[in-house]
Specification:
- There is one protein chain.
- 33% of the residues are buried.
- The protein has 254 residues and is an alpha+beta fold.
- An 8-stranded antiparallel beta sheet has the order 2-6-7-8-1-3-4-5, covered by helices on one side.
- The chain starts with 10 loop residues before the first helix and ends with a helix.
- 33% of the residues lie in helices and 20% in strands.
- It has 2 domains: 110 residues; 129 residues, Pleckstrin-homology domain (PH domain)/Phosphotyrosine-binding domain (PTB) (PH-domain like, Roll), CATH 2.30.29.30.
- It has 6 helices and 8 strands, in the order αααααββββββββα.
């Protein structure tokens, strides 16, 4: 009996899927892939690739959820996820969004360990950006920029000079919505010296200093000016983007 006979409707098929997800409960430790294989053997499943992609993806995302709950992705966990992906016969393109989320989670883990990322010189975000001597680009994210007269009570979390970032502190903070004027899309580039916005035909920069007034939200960043505010909304759907920015800013603003 092949996996195709189990992935779909029916009580027994649903039982197999639930047993597979149960095997992936708890911490993502070595041996989870073998537990999954054991469940398959108990249900006489010979080929885990012979099924519906959405259901295999559901099981894989269950394993990923274990790592995301801990807020980190270690080398051991990444290796176990690779084994689970291989067992489920999922191609990279079938779990593309999940892989992007895992990449961000891995980046976040490394930042917290003191290993800061570097943007490759070939990245399109850096094309035409005038980097200063000894300036190192650490992160780049696509954004939409807005000019806002006020925050409407949505102040976000201030990133303070010399202070550590509080994990997940920006979650639940919504960007100011009313009264903003879009000024275009582009890239927000964080270097070891400044925040640089590169848009179509326009750019702006803010030095990382004790005088910088930066506020983070779940989906973006606010730069407080003498008059008005610049809102940079992340064009990503990952919760880890704000966390990466927060941890990086805290590491660089000291």
């Amino acid at each position: 009996m092949g996996v195709k006979d189990w992935f779909g409707g029916g009580r027994r098929k649903a039982e197999f899927r639930e047993k597979a997800k149960e095997a992936l409960e708890g911490r993502l430790a070595p041996g989870k892939a073998e537990q999954l294989a054991k469940v398959a053997r108990e249900h006489d499943i010979e080929d885990a690739g012979d099924d519906r992609t959405a259901l295999r993806r559901e099981i894989f995302n269950k394993a990923v959820g274990s790592a995301r709950r801990e807020g980190k992705l270690t080398d051991v966990e990444a290796a176990e996820l690779a084994k689970i992906q291989k067992f489920l016969a999922l191609r990279d393109d079938q779990i593309e969004k999940t892989r992007w989320d895992l990449t961000r989670l891995r980046t976040l883990t490394e930042i917290r360990q003191g290993k800061l990322p570097t943007v490759a010189s070939t990245h399109p975000a850096l094309r035409g950006v005038p980097l200063e001597s000894n300036e190192v680009p650490r992160y780049a994210v696509p954004v939409e920029a807005f000019d806002h007269p006020g925050t409407g009570g949505h102040d976000g979390v201030m990133v303070r000079w010399g202070a550590p970032w509080t994990v997940n502190s920006s979650k639940g903070h919504l960007l100011p919505q009313e009264g903003g004027r879009s000024v275009g899309e582009g890239y927000l580039i964080l270097t070891n010296r400044r925040l640089f916005f590169k848009g179509a035909g326009r750019s702006a920069a803010v030095a990382l200093s004790a005088q910088a007034r930066l506020h983070l939200y779940a989906a973006g960043l606010r730069i407080e000016r003498d008059i008005g505010h610049t809102i940079l909304k992340f064009r990503t759907t990952s919760d880890d983007t704000a966390e990466i920015m927060g941890e990086l800013l805290a590491a660089l603003m000291r």
